[in-house]
Amino acid sequence: MTQEYEINSQHFAALKEKYQASNYENTSPDSPLYFILRKADLGLELSDLEYIWLQKEQLLNTANFIRVEQKQKSKERIKLGVEFNSLKYKYQVNNYNIDWAISPLYFILIRINAGDFLTEKESNWLIAHGFSKINIFAVETRKFLNLKSKYKASEYRNSDLDSELYSILKKIDVAERLTEVEYKWLQENQLLETLGFVKQQEAERRNEFTSLKERYQATKYKSKSVGSQLYQILKKLASQESLIDTEIAWLKEQELTETIAIAEEEEKTRDFADLKIKYQATDFEDTSPKSHLYKILKKVDSGNYLGEQDVNYLKKRKLLDTVKIVNDKYADFLKSKIGSLDFFTDDNIQWLENNGYDDIVKTAKEKYSDKLKSKVESFKLLNDAEIEWLKLNDYQDIIILMTEKHFELLKSKYGVREYKDNSLQNPLCDILQKLEKGERIEPQDVVWLQENNFFYAKIFVQYNIIEANFYQQEFKRTGNRWNLVNASSHLRKAEKSNLALQLTDDLPLNKISDNKLKSALLTTRGGAFRDIDNLESAENCARQAMKFQPDSHHPYTLMGAICFERYQYSDGEYWFNEAIKRGAKPLDMDSEMKSIVKKIKDEKQRQELVNYLLNKDEKRYNWAKKYLKKQKDKINNK
Fold first, then answer.
1. 401: which residues sit within 8 A by CB, 6+ positions away?
2. Is the dihedral angle over the CA atoms 548, 549, 550, 555 positive or is it negative?
3. Nearest CA-CA partner of 94 in 129, 125, 60
4. Measuring CA to CA, which of 18, 155, 222, 298 is 20 to 30 A from 102?
5. What is the pLDDT of residue 1?
């Protein structure tokens, strides 16, 4: 008999006893019964043939025993599956469909639910399979169980993390006060030992509150409730935290001025200690914020430089490292201003040079001059302060470059780019700069512009605007209305006739005794009306002007121009002749005629007037042929 046979025989005997088949005489492990009992013991279903064999061998008790056991095991398997699903739901496990019988997750969740610490292998398995949150559940669950043990609440069976008890125990653990609802919850759940801890903490808070009131001289506040705002404020002060404005306001309302004073003093003391560390002055033993050192360090920290007296104070106390830090800090502050004109104050420069920071001054000059040069090269103007800085620091080359660039810009702006002389000494440069600044130019400058054929377009307009502004200011200064006549004339030449009309609105003619002035004001006003094609108003002004000064040729010239613009040529000739009789020059009439022809927009009407003039005196009106040629060109182009 082999050893294996002996072992199997013994196993067979044990199974027969377990499954109520001891009366079966065959003890050989080769028996069919041994096979059936082994199968049943493994929890495997028996076939119908196998049950029939048991009945045939009169083993009915055995068959029934196996049926009951397998039915019970089936129920147990179902129960385990339900429990697994319940755990998955509790720990928010989704989309995991592996059978509980082969999944490691079931056992891990059971361990978590029991509050066991997971092994490293178990934690790694959870992370590897995307269950990091369950790891957190495990830690929290263990923490909950520890808190229940620590605060004598283990008899409370619910260990869900969303349990009211867990939130209460966490508050107790950090000595946070419970709400009235939470306190009652502990009472209702008969957690009296846990309540003992709460009561002990409350007593400690009351003792602390009493102590803090004495420390911060707030004993006049009679309430002993630790729910008081004062308790929270005093705890904050004891923790060396700064109070916010609303808390200070509350203390003032309670008239706790001593408490505020202590709080402020402690705040300054902490600030002083921090500043001593920051500025390497910890060897200075005095901690009181009343110390002069505190004032010095506050001044430094605000970005201000120290005067000689304060520096000597530091040196006498051998705080040389502090002096170095202070100086470097202020030097850095000044360096932040490099590139700005604000850097170059006398005080800043002197301080830097006196304290050995000459290199910063040199760098600042180089960078600022480069900045101004770049600005100039971009055709931007420098202001007076920038120009003055360049002069003081011997950067004449940048000033010259600016003038040259500005001259180029002005030539382009005023339409005289064709003037090739770029010399800054030529008259045009000075003239254009004056015009750009709104300054009047001298009569000889006007003559120079006329001689060089530059007194037109934008230069002409700007000149007349400046002159008009001058005469308006003169009128305001003196009240002399002849200045209005001059201002109106210049505004008209600058093609701002509407502004000219505004100057002569509501003329108090009944208060002006000088008829010549009345006539001049009406004539220039009429001319402005003519400029904007209001010929009826222009005529009214001209006729009024004639009445006030019949011998002046100006209103007659105006009437002649009005008639020609109405295509009343014979009437226009009449009025021009009347003007000549009164001193007007024929050349002036020709100038008026040129302006009339130029102003006409309708080509047909212009052609008619040109033909009229050429037929009358071809030699005198030879200039009109260019308009005739334009008309022919347009016809040919068609």
1. 373, 376, 377
2. negative
3. 129
4. 18
5. 63
**Is-contact 409 388, C-beta < 8 A?**
no
Q: How far apart are CA 241 and CA 235, in angstroms?
A: 9
Instruction: Tell me phi and psi for residue 395, to 5 degrees.
Output: -110, 55
d(CA 201, CA 168): 13
Which residue reads 């119908």 in tokens?
48
How do residues 252-292 score in pLDDT, each as one tens digit?
988 889 999 989 888 889 988 998 899 888 888 888 898 99
CA distance 369 to 555: 60
Share of the chain above pLDDT 90, in %: 30
Q: Report the distance separating Cα 578 and Cα 572, nearest Å.
A: 10
Q: How confident is the model at residue 99 (pLDDT cuts 50, 70, 90)?
A: confident
Strands (E), 291-396: none
In three-state secondary structure terms, 92 is coil
- Comparing CA positions, the residue from 214, 172, 176 lying closest to residue 191 is 172
For 271, residues 6+ apart whose C-beta sits below 8 A from its C-beta are 289, 294, 298
Q: Is the per-residue pLDDT at 75 higher than 60?
A: yes
Residue 431 DSSP code: H
* Lookup: tokens for 256: 């706790």
> For the chain, which residues make up each domain, given as ranges?
3-75
- The answer to whether the Cα torsion of 151, 153, 154, 160 is positive or negative is negative
CA distance 369 to 377: 12
How far, in Å, CA of 479 to CA of 15, rounded? 137
Which of 485, 464, 566 lies closest to 527 in space, CA to CA? 485
* Residue 115 pLDDT greater than 80, yes or no: no
Amino acid identity at 319: L
Residue 310 has which token pair?
A: 């304060």
Between the alpha carbon of residue 424 and those of residues 393, 428, 429, 434, 445, the distances in Å are 22, 8, 6, 14, 15
Who's near 189: CB < 8 A, 6+ residues apart? 156, 165
Q: How many helices (H) and strands (E) does the chain have?
A: 32, 0
Q: Give the pair of three-digit tokens for residue 94.
A: 């989704």
Instruction: Compute the distance between CA of residue 334 and CA of residue 343 in angstroms, rounded to an integer.
Output: 7
Do 276 and 297 meet the contact criterion of CB atoms below 8 Å apart?
A: yes
Q: Which residue do the tokens 């007296």 mark?
A: 309
**Alpha carbon distance 511, 208 (integer Å):** 93
Residue 594 burial (C-beta neighbours within 10 Å; 0-12, 13-18, 19+): middle
Whether the model clears a pTM of 0.70, i.e. scores above it, the answer is no
Q: Is 185 exposed, middle or buried (0-12, 13-18, 19+ CB in 10 A)?
A: middle
Residue 188 exposure: Cα atoms within 13 Å on the Cβ side: 8
Q: What is the CA 89 to chain-centroid distance, rounded?
A: 47
Q: Is the pLDDT higher at 171 or at 308?
A: 171
| Residue 118 one-letter amino acid | L
More confident residue, 369 or 138: 369
First to last CA, the chain: 136
Check: CB of residue 537 under 8 Å from CB of residue 501. no
| Nearest to 620, CA basis, from 576, 582, 567 | 576
